[in-house]
Write a structure and sequence with these properties.
The complex is a heterodimer of chains A (about 325) and B (about 260).
Chain A (H helix, E strand, L loop, with lengths): L1 H19 L7 H10 L2 H10 L1 H24 L12 H14 L6 H20 L8 H23 L4 H12 L7 H20 L1 H7 L3 H6 L4 H23 L5 H13 L4 H25 L8 H23 L3
Helix pairs in contact in A: 1-14, 2-3, 4-9, 4-12, 4-13, 4-14, 5-6, 5-7, 5-12, 6-7, 6-12, 9-12, 13-14, 14-15
Chain B lengths: L1 E10 L2 E11 L4 E5 L6 H8 L7 E6 L2 E2 L5 H5 L2 E4 L11 H6 L14 H13 L15 H14 L4 E5 L7 H18 L2 E5 L3 H7 L2 E6 L2 E6 L1 H4 L2 H8 L3 E5 L6 E5 L4 H5 L1
Parallel strand pairs in B: 3-8, 3-9, 6-7, 7-8
Antiparallel strand pairs in B: 1-2, 1-4, 4-5, 9-10, 11-12
The chains are: A mainly alpha (about 325), B alpha/beta (about 260).
Chain lengths: ~325, ~260
């Protein structure tokens, strides 16, 4: 319980810090003034400059964290996350393809199509009779499919004119620059709807977490549940990717970090903790990316990449020690 | 009664069980025995509908199992797979509560009967004291008892177990098998286990099913199943069978394998 309070408190502090800090630092009093009166530089920061960015970051981090936690629970493997499984790359590819070919669909729809398409491809390639595909097989197939999607996205970028290509490149890294309230509303609206669906699957997840065989024995249609829950989690990740790009490693790190901090054990509690942890990771990473080099605004994906890569290596070595790899 | 008629089961490699007819009694302790690769586990999985049936059919108390809704089946028959893996950091009590999933909807609250079923299951396996411990902290025997409590909490008249004694030392093997028999005697639960140890199987079961590489060799009371002829047919083993000096149940004493056969 104390851990959960601490995690929430950290998130509030990080959000406030993100509002205060930027190319021009604002003092808390200026921000407070702006909040109360709706006028002055504080209001401008809250309304236009940093408010939407922070709101978008919170939403994107939460849906990515939730998605990762669901996959990790479903596949009983801490390496199973939509970024490693290639779903984020698929969502990213679909959006780049949308720009390159001028497809007039909203970004979240494109991202959802791309993410789901990769999920179906990975599922079909890794599928084996009798629902017994090992998680590691799915992860490796996902990694390969994700690399392919990323390569295709990079290729498509060469078809774009110079400025659009630069913008697309930045977005593909994972970026929260120039977000408006539309983006925030998008990720929060879709995120809340999908989260309700996701939490409705908490009990099926309790069975799936015991393995497909035992889940079947407990009355689940395991194969169907796997697809249904995966579908919801892919859509959650796509919602995040649509507004922030395929930010790497957030979905991978959020679940274990949230569970470790809060001591959450049940799937529902771990999902909630993972969502909050995801939001915190994106918020801190964005702060770090903006603050690390004066005068230079790095995309948030660079920071999560720098945080996430060592984590992945540590996790891999731990899995090897356990004998799971 | 759990019955299979002209049952054929296959993995990608080909048929494992072909045209098997089998009938398991609904009020007894049954053990399925046989050499490695004869399809013991495959058969058990099919009987619990974890594995799809290639052809033939399975009936549970006369009803075709193929058409039963999953949840309805899970209220009548529970299965404990071989060496199940628990979620990280789970407590014994939380694990056992999951046995109530077939009885609960998406939103239905935790009811008195759910609590009673879990308490009863923990008590039956002697784990009441350890309910709040992390599963990972416990010994192998205690862990296996926690898993047993999970399927007991499911409250089904049928209980299927795939090698419930693997990785346990002899004392704990006997503890688990004794517990299953007590459960059968006290609450009439039909118990069907896949077992490796022939003598323990004979000691703790009322009914044996002996499978060989080419299907069913014999089924029935331990005395009629464990004969030198049957053992030869199933395992290619030359053995004497004599009464167990402690319980009087059949005891298999293998004869030496001649050196020439070992080196060949």
């Amino acid at each position: 319980m104390r851990g959960a309070v601490l995690l929430a408190l950290l998130l509030v502090l990080a959000s406030v810090a993100a509002l205060l800090h930027g190319q021009i630092d604002a003092s808390p009093s200026v921000l407070w003034q702006g909040l109360l009166t709706g006028e002055g530089p504080g209001a401008l920061i809250l309304d236009t400059i940093r408010g939407p960015r922070v709101a978008t970051a919170l939403g994107a981090g939460a849906v990515l964290g939730l998605s990762g936690t669901i996959f990790q629970t479903l596949f009983r493997n801490p390496l199973a996350a939509p970024d490693l499984l290639g779903f984020n790359a698929g969502a990213g590819l679909a959006i780049i393809a949308g720009i390159a070919f001028g497809i007039a669909l909203p970004a979240p729809v494109l991202a959802a199509i791309g993410g789901l398409a990769v999920a179906v491809i990975v599922g079909a390639l890794a599928w084996r009779r009798g629902s017994g595909t090992p998680a590691l097989t799915i992860i490796l197939v996902g990694l390969g499919t994700g690399f392919t999607a990323t390569a295709l996205a990079t290729f498509l970028m060469t078809l774009l004119p110079g400025t659009a290509a630069a913008e697309a490149q930045r977005w593909l890294t994972g970026s929260l620059a120039a977000r408006n309230w539309g983006h925030a509303a998008q990720v929060w609206g879709a995120g809340i709807a999908l989260s309700l669906l996701a939490f409705s699957q908490a009990r099926p997840l309790m069975a799936m977490e015991l393995g497909a065989e035992l889940a079947t024995g407990l009355g689940m249609r395991a194969e169907l549940a796997r697809w249904r829950i995966s579908g919801i989690a892919v859509l959650l990740a796509a919602t995040g990717v649509a507004v922030a790009g395929p930010v790497p490693f957030v979905a991978l790190m959020a679940g274990p970090f949230g569970a470790r901090m809060t001591g959450a054990r049940s799937p529902a509690a771990r999902m909630a903790a993972g969502a909050v942890a995801g939001a915190l990771i994106v918020m801190l990473a964005d702060l770090l990316a903006r603050a690390s080099l004066p005068g230079l605004q790095l995309p948030v994906g660079v920071a999560t990449g720098l945080l996430g890569a060592p984590y992945l290596l540590w996790r891999l070595s731990r899995e090897m020690d356990k004998g799971d790899l | 009664m759990l019955e299979a008629s002209s049952l054929t089961l296959a993995y990608d490699g080909g048929p494992v069980i072909e045209a098997l007819d089998l009938s398991l009694p609904g009020d007894k302790v049954t053990a399925i025995i046989g050499p490695n690769g004869c399809g013991k586990s495959t058969l058990l999985k099919a009987l619990a509908r974890i594995l799809p049936v290639q052809s033939g059919r399975i009936t549970l108390d006369g009803e075709d199992m193929g058409h039963m809704p999953p949840r309805a089946l899970a209220r009548r028959l529970a299965i404990l797979p071989q060496a199940p893996r628990a979620p990280e950091g789970i407590r014994v009590a939380d694990l056992v509560r999951r046995g109530r999933l077939p009885w609960r909807g998406l939103l239905s609250p935790w009811r008195e009967e759910d609590r009673a079923a879990c308490d009863g299951a923990l008590a039956a396996v002697g784990m009441t004291e350890l309910a709040h411990r992390d599963l990972a902290e416990l010994s192998g025997g205690q862990r296996q008892r926690a898993w047993l409590a999970l399927v007991l909490a499911q409250g089904t008249p049928w209980l299927l177990l795939d090698e419930p004694t693997t990785y346990l030392d002899l004392t704990h093997q006997m503890e688990v098998l004794g517990l299953l028999r007590r459960l059968n005697r006290q609450s009439g639960t039909a118990v069907v286990s896949v077992l490796h140890d022939l003598n323990l199987a004979a000691r703790y079961s009322d009914h044996l099913v002996l499978l060989g590489k080419n299907g069913l060799i014999a089924a029935g009371a331990p005395e009629t199943v464990l004969t030198p002829e049957h053992l030869g047919a199933a395992f290619g083993l030359r053995a004497r069978v004599m009464p167990d000096p402690v319980t009087g149940t059949p005891m298999v004493v293998p004869l030496d394998i001649p050196e020439t056969e070992v080196s060949a």
